[in-house]
Design a protein that fits this description.
The complex is a heterodimer of chains A (114) and B (115). In chain A, the strands form 3 sheets. In chain A, strands 2, 5, 6, 10, 11 and 12 form a 6-stranded mixed beta sheet that branches. In chain A, strands 3-9-8-7 form a 4-stranded antiparallel beta sheet, with no helix packed on it. A two-stranded antiparallel sheet of chain A has the order 1-4. Chain A is built from no helices and 12 strands. Chain A has 114 residues and is mostly beta strands. Chain B is built from no helices and 11 strands. With 115 residues, chain B is mainly β. Chain B has a single domain, classed as Immunoglobulins (Immunoglobulin-like, Sandwich), CATH 2.60.40. Helices cover 0% and strands 50% of the residues of chain B. Chain B is globular. Classes of the chains: A mainly beta (114), B mainly beta (115). At the A-B interface, strand 5, strand 6, strand 10 and strand 11 of A face strand 4, strand 5 and strand 10 of B.
């Protein structure tokens, strides 16, 4: 069975500082990994995805993530955050068999402080 | 082009009433998913459609929940005899094809409140 752990429920950070949001997954099969962002009262927007190939994945809004198979991690990073990055961030995993449904983490609320 | 559209955006109803939530996926997307998001929590998978059939209904919490999809487009999630624990945001997502590598495109959700 697959599972996703986002250890940090909230991350406060000052504007223009770097940030890392952590995601660890558990799976016995090959996985696909995704990061989504959710702004208040909106649906989820895809930030980036890892399917295969290069372990460093770049996404929208200056975000990037690194797939680390040995540590079963897919941490999200941004070198310099803006106030507008304040949102909820979800990590998700899916596989190549069965339903292809996403298994989501519980989310990390990023609060960027002025 | 249009994204995933969900209606209503908000629904308030009394305990015991039935509710119907609608999802219009992106045109041509064959896979459709329903998720539930309780306050302060992640998303729970409810049901998956491939075309008009539902190969996986394992996430439906009880027999009060049902869903259908017609014409490989619109899907409806129905909750009968609503309970207060059904209060949540119900999100619909679609993807062009079936497969774990396919990014899912989400609607803005229906916020359901049971009084």
């Amino acid at each position: 069975a697959q599972s996703v752990t986002q250890l940090d429920s909230q991350v406060p950070v000052f504007e223009e500082a770097p940030v890392e949001l952590r995601c660890n997954y558990s799976s016995s099969v090959s996985v696909y990994l995704f990061w989504y962002v959710q702004y208040p009262n909106q649906g989820l927007q895809l930030l980036l995805k890892y399917l295969s190939g290069s372990t460093l994945v770049k996404g929208i809004n200056g975000f990037e993530a690194e797939f680390n198979k040995s540590q079963t991690s897919f941490h999200l990073r941004k070198p310099s955050v803006h106030i507008s990055d304040t949102a909820e961030y979800f990590c998700a995993v899916s596989g190549d068999s069965g339903t292809y449904k996403y298994i989501f983490g519980t989310g990390t609320r990023l609060k960027v402080l002025a | 082009g249009a994204g995933v559209s969900q209606s209503p955006s908000n629904k308030v109803t009394e305990k015991g009433k039935d509710v119907e939530l609608r999802c219009d996926p992106i045109s041509g997307h064959t896979a459709l998913y329903w998720y539930r998001q309780r306050l302060g929590q992640g998303l729970e998978f409810l049901i998956y459609f491939q075309g008009n059939s539902a190969p996986d209904k394992s996430g439906l919490p009880s027999d009060r929940f049902s869903a259908e999809r017609t014409g490989e487009s619109v899907s409806t999630l129905t909750i009968q005899r609503t309970q207060q624990e059904d209060s949540a945001v119900y999100l619909c997502a679609s993807s062009p094809r079936t497969g774990g590598s396919q990014p899912q495109h989400f609607g803005d959700g229906t916020r359901l409140s049971i009084l």
